[in-house]
Amino acid sequence: MNLIDKIKKCEQGIQLVFAVKKALLGAAAVAVWPVWTVLYIIIVITFGAMFYRTFIGAIGWAVALPFILNLVFNFSFTSIQFGLKNNFLAALDILLTLATLIWMLIAIFPYARG
């Protein structure tokens, strides 16, 4: 096998690696939309129940505040990450979202049935 044949064989190997990598990444993208669909359905049900209880006066507005901020931070992430393309602000948004999740758990705990 001469040098040119070796180079061609190497190029074919590299193309195979890229094809496999692309296929693996593509498969993950296919799974993203059903997962996010289920997550958003859960968010609508749980947040809807909490806001309903807030509107009827069973839960105070101070408890609803972390839920409202969580929605703001969740919905702003896409614009920050893909619109502004600012990883620092996106990371900050993720941390703020996490903080509101912890705050939500603490705020809603006294109203838990059990």
Query: Unreliable stretches, pLDDT < 50, 5 or more residues?
Result: none
Distance between the termini: 75 Å
Figure out the total of helices. Answer: 3
The portion of residues assigned to helices is over 70%
Nutshell version of this structure?
The chain is mainly α and 114 residues long. The protein has three helices and no strands.
Characterization of the model:
The longest helix is centred in the first third of the chain and has 53 residues. The model has no long low-confidence stretch (mean pLDDT 87). The chain is mostly helical. Helix 1 packs antiparallel against helix 2. The protein has one domain. It has three helices and no strands.
